[in-house]
TrEMBL record:
Its EC number is 3.2.1.28. Residues 987-1042 are annotated as: Disordered. This is Trehalase. It comes from Hermanssonia centrifuga. Residues 1000-1030 have a biased composition (Polar residues). GO terms for molecular function: alpha,alpha-trehalase activity; calcium ion binding. Transmembrane segments: none annotated. Belongs to the glycosyl hydrolase 37 family. Residues 89-117 form the Neutral trehalase Ca2+ binding domain. One of its GO terms (cellular component) is cytoplasm. One of its GO terms (biological process) is trehalose catabolic process. It catalyses: alpha,alpha-trehalose + H2O = alpha-D-glucose + beta-D-glucose. Signal peptide: none annotated. It comes from the Eukaryota.
Length: 1055
C-alpha cells in the first residue's frame, strides 16, 4: 500500500517546477505551497484511501476510478506527491529487511513501492521498482527531511537519474563540501573529534607550533569565548618531532594547528585569523593527510575547486616549516613520520590552473612550494636514517618509540602476547611497561621500527613489508623522489629563470651519494648558493640509474623493492612498479615489458589489485588477509597506473583499467544505496571487505554524505579517461568482460565431430569452452533456466528487455549485466538455437567458395608493394608454380553481414578526386547492403581461422603447427619475398576476399565493400615462396587496388 498523505482538507499540494538534477539545497529549499483542491482530492483528510496493495502473479490491480478531469500529459515528466516522514517509515519497514537503514540488493523486500502522482494530487499511484530507484527514493526523502520538508513533489527523474551522472554530481556538489574542515574557532568542534582517540578524554586539544605567538593567542581567545568547548591550548617546543617528546603525548592526543589567513574582523574592526579549509579522507580519518590529499586534489581540480587544492598545499608548506616534514596526518601522534611525497606534482598541477590575472602572485606561491619541497627532500628523504648511503636508495624509516597509539586496541595483541607471557604479565600491563621504558625488548623494538615504516609508506598493512619495511628501498619511493627531482629542476628552469635562492637555512644532503660523503660531518648550507636546474636533472639521472641497478628485474619484466640489509631484491610483486610510468623514469622498453609481461598479473575484473596472489601467499586463521594485498584495489594504485600508461602512449589500456574500476564503483553505488567506500575487493567486486579495519565510508544512514576522499577523486579522474560510449556503458552497469569482449558468448553446438585430438589440443579445449554442453543447455548455470523459459514463450515476447522487465526487481544489476548480452545473443540467433534442439527447419547455412587470386609482397629493391595475379584453374599460368598445383577451391560457412557502399562509382570517384586535389569534403550518399562473410560464430569456422592465425608465426611441421588439410594451401616467405607478404583468395563474384593478417594483436580478417577508410595492417606471410628467385619476367608488377576495399578484423582465439 502506498504511504498515506496528510494535508489540510479542501486543498491540493503544489510545487513550483525546478531543475530536476540539482542539489538538495536548491531542489528542496523554499516553502511548501497550497492551492484550493478539487473535491475528490480532500477525501484523504477524512480517512478514505482507495489505493490497494499491488497484486502479483495472475492477479491485476483493482480497476481505478474514472476521473476524466485528472490531468494526464503524455509529455510532461512524472512527479510524485509524497509525505516525507510517512514514506520513510513505510520504505524502511517494507524494504530494509536487514535493519541497516539502507536499501540494497541484499535486502529481501519486494522492491516495489506505489507512490501517489502529483497530477492526481496523490489519488492515483505509480509503482517505483527496483533497488536503485528505491534507494534513491530513501536518499531523497532523507535530504528533504534535512531541509525541513514535510511534503515534497518529487520528480521521477531524480529516482531514475543516470547513476554515473548522479554519483559524479554528488561528489562534486555534496561530498567535497561534507569532507571540508577548517581549524579555527568555527571549525574546532568538528575537526577535534578523533575516532582513533582511545584515551577516554573527548575534550578538544590543539597544539600550536613554536614561533607562532599570534596563533597561540588566537586559540586562547577562542577558549575563553567558547568555554563549553573546554579547549586545551598547548604550544610545542622548537623541535616537536623528538621521539621521546612525541611518545609523551600519547596520553594527550590533539589536533595540530595548520596555516591560517589574516582577515578583517567585523566585530572588532581589526584583524583576526581564519583557518584555510581543506579536505579530510572521511570516516575515522578526520584530519589532513599527506598522500590522501594529493589524490583528493586531483579530483578537486577536475571539479574546479582550485583554491581548495591550493589551500592544502599551503598547509603542507606550513607543516614543513614548523613540524619538519609533511606529516602522515595532522595529529600529535603523527609528528615523527611522514607519507609518500607528492608535493611537487601537486603544486605544479595547481599552478597550471591558477588564475592568470596575477602571474607574479602565482610565481611567488609556487616558489614557496618548491622551496618547501627542497627542504623536505634534503632534510627527510635523502638524509639519514631514511637514506642508505651504500646504495643511494631512500627508505621509509621514521623515528619513534613504543606502540603506535592510533591503532585499534587489539591490533597488536597477537604480537604482544608472547612477550607478555614471557614476563608473566597481561597484555595491557606489558604494553604500559614497554611504552614507559620499564621493560626493554630489542626484538619488539625492531618489529615496531618496521611497523612505523609500513605506516609511513601509506600501505598499512601488507605482507610485502612484513618485518622488513624499514630496510627496503621501495620502488614507489624511488620513483616519487625521481619525480621530485625532475619537477624541481623543471620549475627552476621554466619558471624561475634557472636560478632559485632558498630563503630558509638548512643542511643540503651530499651529492653524489657515497658512504664517505655521508660519514663526513661537513654539510653545505642551503643559503650558500643558488639552486639550478642542472643539479636537479643530474640527481634525477643518477636516481634513474640506481633504480635500474637495484630495482629493475629484466628477466621478470618488473620493478621490485630492494632490501638494503640483505642486499637483494624482495620478489614481492607489487602494482607500485607501475609508478615508474607515472614518474617517467622507465625506458620505452621497460614500459613495454611492464605492459606486455606484468600488467596481466595485477589486472582483474575490477581493476588493479595491490599485489599478486602468489606473492601474498596462503591465507589462514593464523595468517589473515592484509588490506593492501591481493585481492584489494585502492584508488592511488589505479590513478597512478592510468596516468602512467597514458604518459607512455598506452591510452587504450589506461581506459580499460579506468573502465573496470569505475564499473566496480558504479555497481556498488547502484546496488548498495549509493555507497562510496575506501577500497574494494576487486576480484569479488565487493566493498564488503573482511580485512583488518574492514572498510571505511560504508557506515551511513539512508543517504551517503561524504563518500571517501580518494575514492571520490578516483571516480572524477577516471571519468576523464572514458569515451562517451564507455561512460554510457558504465552507467548501464555493463561488465568489462562484456564491454571489452573478454567473455565469449556461447554459440549453439555444431553438428561436426571434432574427435581427433579434441581432448588434448589446447586450442580445441579453448573452443569447447565457448560451446553448449548439451543441445539447448548453456554451460552457464544462470542461463540454463532462462533458456528453457525462453523456448516456452511466444516468439513475439522473446527479448532480454521483456524477460528483465519482470526479473529486474529480483536480480542484482551485476547479474542482469551478465545475462543481458547472453540472452540477446540467444534471441538474435533464435532460429539457429531452435534448429540445434530440433525445433527449427534445420536449413544448412550458405557457404563461400574461394580460389587463389593474388599474391602480395614487398619488393626487395624498392620496398614497393607488388602483386602477382593468379588465373583461376589455369595450369599454364607461370605463377602456378608458386603453389605446386594446389590452387583448388575451398569453402567456409557464412553469415550475413551489413555493409555500406557508395550509391554510384562515379560519385565516389568524384568525391575522392575533390578531396585529394582540392581538399574539399563532399557529402556522399551511402546505401546499406548485406554481404556474406565467414561465420565466426560457428565453432568450426572460428577454429579454422584461429589455426590459420597461429600458423602465421610458425613453420610447417614446427611444434604448434596445425595441419589444415588439403583444402588450404601453404605459402611461406623466401629471400625474394618480404615477410610482409599475404595471400588473397576471392569468390568468383569478387565480392569477398579472405586474407590472413597479423599485427600488434593477432587477428584474422576478411575484406568486403565498405564505407570506412582502410587502415593498413602489418601483414605476415602464410604462403610458400618459390625455391628459386623469380626472373624479371616472372616478377610481379605493381598495380592499384580498389579504394573501397577494407578489412574487417575478427579477433582469433589463441591459447
Amino acid at each position: 500500500m502506498a504511504p498515506s498523505l496528510n494535508h489540510p482538507s479542501a486543498v491540493s499540494f503544489i510545487d513550483e517546477l525546478k531543475p530536476v538534477n540539482t542539489e538538495a539545497a536548491e531542489y528542496y529549499g523554499g516553502k511548501e505551497q497550497f492551492s484550493r483542491g478539487r473535491t475528490y482530492s480532500a477525501s484523504f483528510a477524512h480517512g478514505y484511501n482507495p489505493k490497494r496493495a499491488p497484486a502479483f502473479g495472475d492477479e491485476w490491480h483493482s480497476r481505478a476510478r474514472r476521473m476524466s478531469h485528472d490531468e494526464k500529459s503524455m509529455t510532461a515528466p512524472r512527479r510524485f506527491l509524497i509525505d516525507v516522514e510517512e514514506t520513510i517509515r513505510v520504505v524502511l519497514e517494507q524494504e530494509d529487511t536487514d535493519g541497516d537503514f539502507q536499501i540494497s540488493v541484499t535486502d529481501a523486500g519486494p522492491k516495489l513501492m506505489p507512490l501517489g502522482t502529483a497530477t492526481s494530487n496523490g489519488f492515483k499511484t505509480f509503482d517505483v521498482r527496483g533497488t536503485y530507484m528505491l534507494s534513491n527514493l530513501l536518499q531523497e526523502l532523507a535530504l528533504a527531511r534535512d531541509h525541513g520538508r514535510k511534503r515534497i513533489v518529487l520528480d521521477e527523474a531524480r529516482l531514475t537519474e543516470n547513476p554515473v551522472d548522479r554519483l559524479s554530481r554528488m561528489i562534486k556538489n555534496s561530498f567535497w563540501h561534507a569532507l571540508t574542515r577548517r581549524i579555527d574557532g568555527d571549525g574546532l568542534e568538528i575537526i577535534c573529534a578523533d575516532p582513533k582517540n582511545r584515551t577516554g578524554r573527548i575534550n578538544p586539544r590543539i597544539y600550536v607550533p613554536h614561533g607562532e605567538p599570534a596563533m597561540a593567542e588566537y586559540y586562547r581567545k577562542v577558549a575563553k569565548e567558547k568555554p563549553h568547548l573546554n579547549l586545551d591550548v598547548q604550544v610545542l617546543p622548537p623541535h616537536p618531532d623528538d621521539p621521546v617528546f612525541v611518545k609523551s603525548l600519547n596520553n594527550k592526543p590533539g589536533i595540530l594547528a595548520l596555516e591560517m589567513n589574516e582577515v578583517d574582523d567585523p566585530r572588532s574592526g581589526g584583524k583576526t585569523l581564519k583557518g584555510i579549509p581543506f579536505i579530510v579522507p572521511g570516516a575515522r580519518f578526520n584530519e589532513l593527510y599527506n598522500w590522501d590529499s594529493y589524490f583528493i586534489s586531483l579530483g578537486l581540480l577536475i571539479d574546479g575547486q582550485v583554491n581548495m587544492a591550493k589551500g592544502m598545499v599551503d598547509h603542507f608548506i606550513f607543516e614543513i616549516e614548523h613540524y619538519g616534514k609533511i606529516l602522515n596526518g595532522s595529529r600529535s601522534y603523527y609528528l615523527c613520520r611522514t607519507q609518500p611525497p607528492f608535493l611537487t606534482d601537486m603544486a605544479l598541477q595547481i599552478y597550471n590552473q591558477l588564475d592568470r590575472s596575477d602571474i607574479e602572485a602565482n610565481r611567488a606561491w609556487l616558489k614557496r612550494a618548491i622551496q618547501a619541497a627542497i627542504k623536505e627532500y634534503n632534510t627527510i628523504w635523502v638524509a639519514e636514517p631514511r637514506m642508505d648511503p651504500k646504495t643511494g636508495l631512500s627508505r621509509y624509516r621514521p623515528d619513534g618509540l613504543g606502540i603506535p597509539p592510533e591503532t585499534e586496541a587489539t591490533h597488536f595483541t597477537h604480537i604482544l602476547e608472547p612477550f607478555a607471557t614471557k614476563h608473566g604479565l597481561s597484555v595491557l600491563e606489558f604494553s604500559e611497561r614497554y611504552n614507559d621504558g620499564t621493560l626493554r625488548e630489542p626484538e619488539l623494538d625492531e618489529y615496531f621500527l618496521h611497523d612505523r615504516a609500513v605506516r609511513e609508506s601509506g600501505h598499512d598493512t601488507t605482507y610485502r613489508f612484513e618485518k622488513r619495511c624499514a630496510n627496503l628501498g621501495t620502488i614507489d619511493l624511488q620513483t616519487l623522489l625521481y619525480k621530485y627531482e625532475v619537477d624541481i629542476g623543471t620549475a627552476i628552469r621554466e619558471v624561475f629563470d634557472d636560478e632559485l635562492e632558498l630563503e630558509e637555512d638548512f643542511d643540503l644532503a651530499p651529492f653524489p651519494v657515497t658512504p664517505e660523503s655521508y660519514a663526513s660531518t661537513y654539510r653545505e648550507r642551503s643559503k650558500s648558493r643558488t639552486q639550478t636546474s642542472a643539479e636537479w636533472f643530474d640527481r634525477a639521472d643518477w636516481r634513474r640509474e640506481i633504480i635500474d641497478k637495484y630495482c629493475w628485474n629484466e628477466s621478470k619484466g618488473l620493478y621490485f623493492d630492494y632490501d638494503t640489509v640483505q642486499e637483494k631484491q624482495s620478489l614481492y610483486e607489487s602494482v607500485t612498479a607501475f609508478w615508474a610510468l607515472w614518474a617517467g623514469c622507465a625506458s620505452e622498453e621497460q614500459a613495454w615489458k611492464l605492459l606486455s609481461h606484468s600488467l596481466k598479473k595485477f589486472e582483474v575484473l575490477g581493476g588493479l589489485v595491490s599485489g599478486t596472489e602468489e606473492s601474498r601467499g596462503k591465507i589462514s586463521l593464523d595468517r589473515p588477509n592484509r588490506q593492501w594485498d591481493y585481492p584489494y584495489a585502492w584508488p592511488p594504485h589505479q590513478i597512478m597506473a592510468w596516468v602512467g600508461l597514458e604518459r607512455y602512449g598506452y591510452l587504450e589500456e589506461a581506459q580499460r583499467l579506468a573502465y573496470r574500476f569505475l564499473y566496480m564503483m558504479t555497481t556498488a553505488f547502484v546496488d548498495f544505496n549509493g555507497v562510496v567506500p575506501e577500497k574494494f575487493d576487486a576480484v569479488k567486486l565487493s566493498h564488503l571487505v573482511d580485512a583488518e579495519y574492514g572498510n571505511q565510508g560504508i557506515d551511513f544512514k539512508m543517504v551517503p554524505r561524504e563518500g571517501f576522499g580518494w575514492m571520490n577523486a578516483a571516480y572524477q579522474v577516471g571519468l576523464s579517461y572514458l569515451s562517451t560510449g564507455m561512460r554510457r556503458a558504465v552507467a548501464a552497469c555493463t561488465s568489462p568482460e562484456v564491454f571489452f569482449g573478454n567473455i565469449a558468448i556461447p554459440p549453439p553446438i555444431s553438428s561436426q565431430n571434432y574427435a581427433s585430438n579434441a581432448g588434448t589440443d589446447p586450442l580445441n579445449l579453448a573452443m569447447d569452452a565457448l560451446n553448449l554442453s548439451e543441445p539447448g543447455v548453456f554451460r552457464y548455470p544462470a542461463v540454463c533456466v532462462t533458456a528453457v523459459v525462453v523456448l516456452r514463450l511466444p516468439r513475439s515476447l522473446i527479448s532480454a528487455p521483456t524477460i528483465f522487465r519482470w526479473a529486474s526487481p529480483m536480480l542484482p544489476s551485476t547479474l542482469i549485466t551478465l545475462l543481458t548480452p547472453l540472452l540477446n545473443y540467444g534471441f538474435y540467433n533464435l532460429s539457429t538455437l531452435l534448429d540445434t534442439v530440433g525445433l527449427g527447419s534445420a536449413r544448412p547455412p550458405p557457404t563461400l567458395r574461394f580460389e587463389l587470386r593474388q599474391l602480395h609482397a614487398v619488393s626487395p629493391t624498392n620496398a614497393r608493394v607488388v602483386f602477382s595475379d593468379i588465373s583461376p584453374r589455369n595450369p599454364t599460368d607461370s605463377s602456378q608454380s608458386l603453389l605446386h598445383d594446389q590452387n583448388i577451391p575451398y569453402s567456409v560457412r557464412t553469415r550475413r553481414l551489413k555493409s555500406t557502399r557508395p550509391r554510384s562509382r562515379e560519385a565516389f570517384l568524384d568525391a575522392r578526386r575533390r578531396s585529394v586535389r582540392f581538399g574539399e569534403s563532399v557529402a556522399l550518399g551511402w546505401e546499406e547492403d548485406e554481404v556474406a562473410g565467414p561465420d565466426v560464430e560457428k565453432r568450426d569456422t572460428l577454429l579454422e581461422l584461429a589455426k590459420m592465425t597461429n600458423n602465421a608465426y610458425l613453420e610447417p611441421g614446427e611444434a604448434g603447427w596445425y595441419d589444415l588439410g588439403g583444402e588450404w594451401n601453404v605459402v611461406s616467405p623466401s629471400p625474394i619475398l618480404s615477410p610482409q607478404s599475404i595471400h588473397i583468395s576471392s569468390t568468383s563474384s569478387n565480392s569477398v576476399s579472405l586474407t590472413p593478417l597479423a599485427g600488434n594483436r593477432t587477428q584474422m580478417g576478411f575484406a568486403g565493400t565498405s564505407s570506412r577508410p582502410q587502415t593498413t595492417p602489418r601483414l605476415c606471410s602464410l604462403s610458400r615462396a618459390p625455391q628459386q628467385p623469380l626472373s624479371a619476367a616472372e616478377a610481379p608488377q605493381p598495380r592499384k587496388t580498389s579504394s573501397t576495399t577494407t578489412f574487417y578484423s575478427v579477433a582469433a582465439v589463441l591459447v
